[in-house]
Here is the input.
Amino acid sequence: MNSNIIINTPAALLRPEAALLLSCARRPMPGAGPPSLQTFLSADLDWDYLLQLASRHGLIPLLYTHLSRCGADRIPKPVLAKLWAGYELNTRHSQFLAEELAELLHLLESSGIRALPYKGPVLARLLYGHVALRHAGDLDILVSRADALRARELITARGYRSTRSLTHGQATAYLHGQRYYHFELVHPTHKLLVELHWRIGHDLFSVATDRLLERAKLTAPGLDQRAPRLLSPEVLLLV
Here is the structure.
């Protein structure tokens, strides 16, 4: 059987809007963009559906980046304006997330707590080269189980509030429960949610953060130096 048929059949069954979006779901590279982009732009596209699909999957930033570089003259101006507005909104939010993440990591590290960023702005920069090219709604930080309560107290002192009303004894029990793996804290003013993990996932399929903290690498060039350690790309792929 022709392997090309197997590879190409799923894309052939997609609506052209979905196929176009899929071709843009990649790191932008210098040059003419994805080879198939011009082909998809030649189709009779439902632009409203494309915008809805991109928004649903958090791909407005990547879609705008590719289309503005390689096909802006073939896109209706109202559509391009909506894409630009979504891109700008995500850029401002992503920059805020990156700055707040750096502050929180510095707060924890300066208090003697090893902490690692997980997903969010750091993953966006590693995957796409810029924090604004991946949509993120919250921040995830990894700490050891032994440091989780103190880290929670430090972040609370910065103005965040736990989404669960827990006494110290309840929080300790929560920390050692099999069903739980993170604290959730939200800021009452800017509504940012921070998830403070001592495990990744529930107990049956979880990964302890202690081992991840031990394997963390020094910050890669170009990333915020206030985040002194990062998970390696190989570890991020697995977790």
